[in-house]
Amino acid sequence: MGKVAPFHSVKEKNKPASERVHHTNDTQCAPGRDIPKHERVDGTGGYRICVHCAKL
Ligand SMILES: [Zn+2]
User: Fold this and answer.
1) Mean pLDDT taken over the chain
2) Gap from CA of 15 to ligand 1 centroid (Å)
3) How far from chain centre, in Å, is Cα 39?
């Protein structure tokens, strides 16, 4: 449960390139869950998967 299509935050681009991530779970991943709906962008954005989502 909670597995969704890849998404990332519109604010991700404000972080250093090495810290930018995308998520694939919007309930079990706390950082992913905390991204408000209006800040979500579909797709990976070309960023690596977040460490939490990678384990889910
Ligand atoms: Zn995540």
Assistant:
1) 96
2) 15
3) 11
